[in-house]
Design brief:
The protein is an alpha/beta fold. The protein has 13 helices and 8 strands.
Length: about 290
């Protein structure tokens, strides 16, 4: 049997809190670690995900930042608005979150959908984003096969949240398919079993609709207008796009730094937290 991994063992001994904030009328769940007097860092998960995507990163980042990992709008245990979710809705929620925690600006690091939201926020609200990390970020292209795969796996997991369907959705994120990811599966299964979550997932999947996606995509004009110092982080085994796409994104952002983490899939911050934290903190602290 492989070594059992759990969210709690990742957080054991870490001074952190879990709670809810009112963000413009939206009850929003967060995990927080670090002194609130330190500069703010907000971590944004991917499509259909939740704050636990960053449980292995809170401790290292809390040494330097007031570190927040949130359930994004309509995700996890954050309130669901009941309409198809486009990037502008997530951005408004993120900016509202910064207002709710009382910070004029923050470093924003987003994975997948979170990276798409973070990039758009940096375009629309340049004064609020101090540093930007795009981690296997979405929003640069529309790959029909990838979009179909995300919808199929996600709707199967939420329509019939058995161990197998939810585990298939989790394993898709990872390069290492030999692990069972039991605790992540159990956590996500509980989220997906909430009343009304099938409808919520349909709203989340709106961005996989070709027409909706097209009007939300970011191109050279948008990426080229980003003024925040930016790190584009990619992986050797990302299931959504290859390294060349990550490099293309970085090439469109003035002065962006580009890094590739080996032997990781869509969640490098989880699969190789030590390497991720080192690269991430080096950039966030001005390296």
């Amino acid at each position: 049997m492989s070594e059992y991994e759990s969210i709690w063992s990742d957080l054991q001994g870490v001074p952190f809190s879990q709670g809810y904030l009112d963000v413009g009328g939206v009850r929003t769940r967060y995990l927080h670690a670090g002194d609130k007097g330190k500069p703010a860092l907000v971590l944004l998960h991917g499509s259909g995900g939740h704050a636990e995507a960053y449980v292995r990163n809170l401790e290292a980042h809390a040494e330097h930042f007031s570190t927040w990992s949130i359930d994004m709008l309509g995700h996890g245990y954050t309130e669901r608005p009941g309409h198809p979710l486009e990037i502008e809705h997530y951005v408004a929620h993120l900016i509202g979150f910064l207002d709710a925690i009382g910070v004029p600006g923050a470093a924003i690091s987003g994975e997948s959908l979170g990276g798409w939201v973070a990039a758009r926020a940096a375009v629309d609200h340049p004064g609020r984003i101090n540093r930007l990390v795009l981690n296997t970020a979405g929003g640069s292209q529309a790959d029909p096969e990838v979009m179909k795969r995300i919808v199929t796996l996600s709707m199967a997991a939420v329509s019939d949240p058995t161990w197998e369907t939810v585990q298939a959705r989790i394993k898709w994120l990872m390069a290492d398919k030999s692990k069972d990811y039991d605790d992540l599966v159990a956590s996500r299964q509980r989220i997906y079993r909430q009343p009304g979550f099938v409808a919520a997932m349909r709203d989340i999947m709106a961005l996989q609709d070709p027409e909706i996606r097209q009007r939300n995509l970011l191109g050279p004009k948008e990426y080229g207008s980003i003024t925040a110092p930016t790190l584009v982080l990619w992986t050797s085994h990302d299931p959504t796009a290859d390294v060349a796409e990550g490099r293309r994104i970085a090439s469109m952002i003035p002065g962006a730094r580009f890094e590739v983490l080996p032997d990781c899939g869509h969640w490098p911050q989880y699969e190789d937290a030590k390497t991720f934290d080192a690269v991430h903190l080096d950039f966030l602290l001005g390296g």
